[in-house]
Design goal:
By secondary structure, this protein is an alpha/beta fold. It has nine helices and 14 strands.
Length: 258
Amino acid sequence: MAIKMIVTDLDRTLLRDDKTISPYTAGTLEELHASGVPFVIATARPTRAVRKAMPWLRYDGAVFFNGAVVTAGGESLRAYKIDGALDIVRAILRDKPETQLSVEMEDYLYSNMPPESLGDWGSDYGYTRDFHETGGRQVEKILISSENIQPEGWEREYAKYIPEDLYMQMSEGALLMVMNRQATKLNGIRLLAERYGVGLGEIAAFGDDVNDIEMLTACGVGVAVGNALPEVKAAADEVCGSNEEEGVARWIWGNVLT
């Protein structure tokens, strides 16, 4: 089967643990670009986090915010956003005021958490207590965490606040993401595949976390990196080297560029 598009997650997949790529991986991506095979990133990161932290990364298409925003060549193709975010976060804070909340809106982060606790997510950051800034606006994502509730219990505890048109998903066991039900990596990939005239069966997708499973199983070849969660490896067609072993790049050289 000829692979006509590459899609990859970033953190712990394409990127090494220090958030860089090796010269080998950089060279592989240059060869991929020269070959004319579209290179797509699919990440939970906001647009600004990729633009600021990885200005050296060249890609043809991108799925940001886990699927809430989809772009091709810098052009926005679609945005799947959340209505009524202010009502949701205020209901949570009324009942569970200790909850740590962040809201992504127009590629800006509003949070009741101090910026030093947010790491890369704290760029373009506004501290807020009541999230009034989001009133009457659509947002890309709501992020939830709590020090009073174990992470495995977050979905159960917060489910009653989440309308049926939204869904919850854990990210790296550290954050509970809330998004529009249409905002998934796979839906973003479908838009980009149509844009580039590629069928899902002609795509190789790479990932490491739970939010990658759907795209790994739907694309022609789903590849888990060696450091992926066990359930991701179980769902994938293949397992390549880890993110520290240039697994994505070495798979591309062995299966697409040779």
